[in-house]
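Q: My labmate handed me this sequence with no annotations at all. I'd like to see what the chain might look like in three dimensions before we decide whether it's worth expressing. Could you predict it?
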Amino acid sequence: MTPQTRNVVVLGSTGSIGTQTLDVVERLQAAGIPLRVVGLAAGSNVELLEQQIERVRPDIVSVLSEPHAQRLEARFPHLRVVRGGDGPRTLASESGVDVVVNALVGAAGLLPTLAGVSRGCVVALANKESLVIGGSLVRAALHEGRGRILPIDSEHSAVLQCLDAGRRGDVRRVILTASGGPFRDTDPRELARVTPRDALCHPTWAMGARITIDSATMVNKAFEVIEAHYLFDVSLDEVSVVLHPASLIHSLVEYRDGSVLAQLASHDMRIPIQYALTYPDRHATKLPRLDFSAPLAFEFRPLDPARYPAFATVLAAAREGGSAPAALNGADEVLVRRFLHGEIPFPGIAAGLATVFDRWQAEVEGRGKRGSGLAEILAADCWGRTVSEGLSWP
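A: Here is what I predict for the chain of 394 residues:
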């Protein structure tokens, strides 16, 4: 019996994860795996999107601007083009779609995730903000529908694989690894002078700008703790983080009998992307492999809270719950952009997040912003952005 073709949409197709996803799909298709990309959603990189359309021949695409939409309609007259910020949700809601690869950046990924799981799709999730700001909403949608989330993050893909080896009730804790970013050995007194170019030089991974800066501040790892909480139904206290500079062990799971299982692989995002697209099956790949004939570094270090103050701030917001994570996520997007544009120093990101969290707590006491409904979450995200835009440093 011939396997049925699985229809895939890729949201954020011109970004780092999106482009690697299309590479994985083409590799799988060449190996006879029945996948078809039926939809692409992109932001402003219309030139690359046009190349992708020529490669994969989708049925529908989404772009933000009207001029870009008109350009695509003129060049590809048989292509269905949707425009505007709601386009990714439209693609995730399309009938006949089996897999939604959500590689969007930021809060914009929440509504497409909700749409995909509500329809019963598999959502291959690289947009961790969906769970950081709307984890309870996504959980409710999963409970009500037939959808499933499979993580693309290398850390959470590793946890998923380690959990398959035991019973959830026997898990003592989940251990996420972190490279420590480009400044893990930098004197903290020097951080005020680092440049965006310095911060974008991640020691092991090639990623988009925001996630690379978030890795330098460890905001990204705090987001991953929250994501693990919702993905695997473990408490925040049952998720630990250790520094592992080599980035060869992507995560570990410790069981109550003292056994610790680890998942190892080369630091190539196409490996977890492929696993999410083919789960639970594994297929041969020509992607990079670990060379066990050469020395491999398995050093671990504790995470120093003083070096990464933003990590503690984000987790404090997660413990507060409600709209606090959404407020900090919105603030982080703005603060990272302001750092990349040279408006604030690198330590200003952590300082700004602390200020926003303090103000959020004051707002809760004053007028109340604790709600976790969709309207409250989106409002808090906007509020965090507005506050962050107004912050200044000497």
